[in-house]
Write a structure and sequence with these properties.
Helices cover 76% and strands 0% of the residues. By secondary structure, it is mainly α.
């Protein structure tokens, strides 16, 4: 939730493009793939 609020504020402030695919890659990369790599799943 904190991460999504942060990324959402970036988009609202124009600091990051409002691109659904790019946002999806960032969120899934941080929340899913980092954990997957860390736990070796």
């Amino acid at each position: 939730r904190i991460m999504c609020n942060l990324i959402g504020s970036w988009v609202e402030n124009g600091e990051y493009p409002n691109d659904d695919e790019a946002l999806k890659r960032i969120v899934s990369g941080i929340s899913y793939y980092n954990a997957k790599r860390y736990f070796g799943i």
